[in-house]
TrEMBL record:
UniProt superkingdom: Bacteria
PANTHER family tied to this protein: CYCLASE (PTHR34861:SF10), PTHR34861
Annotated Gene3D superfamilies: Putative cyclase
InterPro entries, alphabetized: KFase/CYL (IPR007325), KFase_sf (IPR037175)
The organism of origin for this protein: Lentzea xinjiangensis
MF GO annotations: arylformamidase activity
One Pfam match: Cyclase
One record GO biological process: L-tryptophan catabolic process to kynurenine
Full protein name: Putative cyclase
């Protein structure tokens, strides 16, 4: 990999890893096509104890966002309260009262999925579509994340690279290679293959929760190396999520680049990418019982035309 030529490396990886046309010209699901009913049955059979783990951060003003690209933390506002009810301001009969609320937030400010309309390569969106006519001011007119809402449930595996390779946490700037992923899977005794949802724990979120957000949102971070594009394509996984802000290693591995792995995996592979997932409690449980595969339900909100979605992933063991 020529670290001075991100343009060339991205172009080569895009050619090598392209899934354009694989599932037809009208495809809206990308690699979620790998997550079949048989794969869901396999995932459901993994439930042994019935213990569940939420993999989401709290959606509140104490989140990691600092305003980059107008991304703010969620703002939660009450519309009706118990105070209103007690004061008789709600004008309901026979003593009934209630509370209502509203939340205002960017769809990618916290635990979330990147949809297929989120990233383009030289003006091309997933499956080779023209980005200008695919995602407009009206939203993603073709691959809006609502099309994925019924599909993201099945077998998932946790690759705790932070624990296996880093002794707990990987340092910022650590590039996770295919060798690291394979070694971690072998250490856990778990296979990774077609239709799986892969969760990669780096430990960075544990550090941020302990020491403060700092530059978590957009700053240096451990993450996947650009060189993992071939593995992500070849393994035929359905989706991948990490405990970091941006999925791939930061600073990126080229002299001048911005999220080059995104530029390959989303518009060319059609891969569903999750970020800012809280894997800590799940990782502790996996370390205790030695089982790193489980049932996962992680449906995006069916927000028409959205290019990303908040999610509360639930892992069940």
């Amino acid at each position: 990999m020529n670290r001075d030529d991100p343009e060339g490396a991205i172009a080569a990886a895009a050619r090598s890893c392209s899934n354009w046309g694989r599932w037809g010209e009208d495809d809206r699901l990308g690699t979620l096509n790998h997550l079949t009913p048989d794969k869901r049955r396999q995932g459901a059979a993994l439930v042994r104890r019935g213990d569940s783990f939420s993999l989401s951060l709290p959606f509140d003003m104490n989140g990691p966002q600092k305003g980059w690209r107008r991304r703010t933390n969620p703002v939660h506002t009450m519309l009706d309260t118990g105070t209103d009810a007690a004061a008789g301001l709600q004008d309901f009969p026979h003593g009934i009262g209630g509370a209502d609320d509203v939340i205002t937030m960017p769809l990618q400010c916290c635990t979330q999925w990147d949809g297929l309309g989120h990233i383009f390569d030289h003006g091309r969106a997933w499956n080779g579509r023209d980005a200008a006519t695919t995602v407009t001011s009206q939203g993603d007119l073709v691959t809006g994340i609502e099309h994925m809402a019924a599909h993201v449930a099945g077998r998932a595996v946790l690759l705790d690279v932070g624990r296996v390779v880093g002794g707990g946490e990987l340092p910022d700037g650590f590039a996770i290679t295919e060798a690291h992923l394979v070694t971690t899977a072998e250490t856990h005794g778990v296979a990774v293959g077609r239709g799986d949802v892969v969760l990669v724990r780096t430990g960075q979120l544990a550090r941020a929760k302990r020491d403060g957000w700092g530059d978590y949102a957009g700053g240096p971070a451990p993450g996947l190396s650009f060189t993992t594009a071939e593995w992500l394509h070849r393994s035929e996984i359905a989706a991948i999520a990490t405990d970091t802000w941006g999925f791939e290693v930061r600073p990126n591995e080229f002299a001048e680049a911005f999220q080059p792995l995104h530029q390959v995996v989303i518009p060319h592979i059609g891969l569903l990418v999750g970020e800012m997932w809280d894997l800590e409690a799940l990782a502790e449980d996996c370390a205790r019982d030695g089982v790193h595969e489980f049932w996962l339900s992680a449906a995006p909100l069916p927000i028409t035309g959205a290019v990303g979605s908040p999610v509360n992933p639930i892992a069940v063991k």
